[in-house]
Batch of 2 targets.
Target 1
Amino acid sequence: MLSRILSQSAVALLWLLHFLPLPILAVMGQGLGLLLFHLAGRRRKIALVNLSLCFPELGDQERNNLAKAHFKMLGRSILERSILWWGSRERMYRLIQVVGEEKMHALRAAGRPIIMLAPHFVGLDAGGIGIALRFDSLTIYSAQKNPVFDRVVLRGRSRIGDQLMLSRQEGARATVKAMKSGRPFYYLPDMDFGSRDSVFVPFFGVQAATITGLSRLSRAARAAVVPCVTRMLPGGKGYVVEIGDPWPDFPTADVEADTRRMNAFIENVVRTMPEQYYWVHRRFKTRPEGEGRFY
């Protein structure tokens, strides 16, 4: 009961925050991030381990500063979700720019199913809303452990446009069917989901268990793969969603090579804004046989 009351209070506070201007929310979010950096010791440790693996050329102080910058962005993303979940359509159109949407229109006009490769940057929720504002889209939803937050997150992500939310349990067949019906798939494949349906390919030079879904789904649906990267802008200026050109020669007959290509692409984008990648996830949790754990 106490947990439920605290969760409902947190949601109520978040709802109140959506009335604030974004620049004020951004400053508050950075403050929350700094607080989390000092209080969330386990997540701070995970981030620092990830950064030591991915940026071994940096010194300890540089990695600590990068982790702190990441937590500030993470804090912003938490508070700014209040706008994404309760803000008006008009406000979100102003705050979320989409660059390159004409590429999506061209593919749809040609009858091509589309997979939007959306790496785990802190602005990914804004990216999903930006796409849903403009297209009847598709995404995968993972249930939250807290039932109060689960209802809020599900409603917040699905309230804009005609966005189809599928669970992971519904499988590839439902996903392919929805893509073939014309829904672009906002796909986030760069997390460690264990060894099932995964291969070990490099990510920043470290073998990372990576799901092969991008290659397999692209082949099954005959879908074009389009990069979709969301950047959080400084000074509370909002977000920009960058839609790239469709990947040529993808997929190939080599699923592992396709998955390696995906990780290399994500790595290159991460280097352009390392503070915005989701470093608090245990990206290297699953290890090849015989290797010790990092976390």
Target 2
Amino acid sequence: MNNRITSLFNIQYPIIQGGMVWCSGWRLAVAVSEAGGLGLLGAGSMHPEMLREHIQKAKANTTKPFGVNVPLLYPEIEKIMSIIIEEGVKIVFTSAGNPKTWTKILKDKGITVVHVVSSSKFAKKCEDAGVDAVVAEGFEAGGHNGREETTTLTLIPQVRKAISLPLIAAGGIGSGSGMMAAMALGADGVQLGTVFALSQESSAHEAFKTHSTSLEEGDTMLSLKKIGATRLIKNDFYQKVTELEDRGASADELKALLGKGRAKKGMFEGDLVEGELEIGQIASLVKEIKPVKQIVDEIVTEFGQVRAAISSINF
């Protein structure tokens, strides 16, 4: 495959791994990059020096391109960005904040910058800010999400009309056919979170991975909308959140329930009862924990099969 995304990142396939908290360490990023996609380190769950360690390990284990995903609301953002620049990272995906804040600074250092959005309005702001590409993420995605609850199927064509930049689709994509659908709607590539979060190389806890492969349709819901819409697996913690939200709890009450380290407790430490378990809707199609190379190969093979099948249709 050769298009604007493969050229931008110098990768074989227009497949980008989501930079997910507690799942996206150096092993996962390296595995995705080695398989022909673009691996990302998830800075959102790393202290600055931990990120430095993961960057150095990624550099030591692959010569392929990889990047770092940085939520701009991160409390130690200046340290994170300094480390990224010092370590010579060439690709940065930013999210959860204003792209104008860091885009020029990063680009002046020769870094390719991509920003994640959930609406065409913010996609336009990204283009104005000078980013190199945009990720448009539908609300099917796991983790933190857009309040608008716009589906990927609806979002991608609207963003495509709004901007001329290379466009990466995210949210509910986990197969070659899903990739083909996103590209038919105007995307140049796809970003996959859930399927890689549940891979062998993911740093997520094995109990979290195994539980996620047992999910059916409807076993995840968008929650915590007053403090940051997040897609969660239904468990005891989720039920407590729902009870508070149903009786009109304030943002402060929800923050008190959430506390600190709830996502780490669930996804990294494997507490399936009281942990915050973030995963996308597409988890209901993932029934096996596979190595990254197999996942990428299967997606690419299915993409080719679907493309051939569509080409054979007589209209």
